[in-house]
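Question: what's this shape?

___
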Amino acid sequence: MRVFGHDLLRTPDDPEMHVRDPFFWGAYPMAPWCGRVEAAPVVIGGKRVSLPANFLDGSAIHGQVYAMPWEVREDGSLAAVRAGGDVWPWPYEVTMRVQARYASVGLDYALTNLADEPMPAGIGVHPWFLRPLHVAIQANGVLSPNQATPPDPTPVTGPFDLRELAEMPSDLDATWTDLSDPPVQLYWPQLGLRATMRAEAPALYIVAASPGHLNAVALEPQTHAPQAIRRLLNGEPGALAMLDPGASLQLRVELAFERAG
């Protein structure tokens, strides 16, 4: 993503790095779930779900479509090859449409249940924005840590209170909720660029991570909180949605940029 001549996403010199190490580059869609869920067999709606661990902490992370081929449709949208029916027992389809205008971009995602019974569902996008970067997240609640979030958020305090635009402390990894509009603001001081991120979904969470060893910050709009399968089974807030057959879960993300100073 290049804005006013500046690349803003962490991108490898070798595109094959996206295949070998898919999680720490670019801005990839997450579906049919987002973030971390437990890699353990469970039964949902009479279906056995047995997701393999794909991350160092032993979790099943970021869904399936990040590693699947996509096709370009005649109308210019992108569609994932139909997936599911495996360790995720429900077949589904994900589509994405990108609309770029002078200084803004709109990203429309949809996850459609192709099964004959209800399917648990979540969708999101995982961009890595280059540092140096100042961030503001307009949220009153936070869930932390992302590896094992509690059922309910706590009020933002200390390093988790990001309501003022500033450098994000290193090595934060949490989920912000109870969001205001706009939920996220960004500022690249060396580039003189500002951005506003807005998102629309039936439910909205912002996951953010600032690994100290990376030159980028992740700011991820998504439709549920971490451990969303546990949340669904336990009746906790922030769970995966249950999609009826043929229904779609939609997420729209808008980024508007302007020169600063």
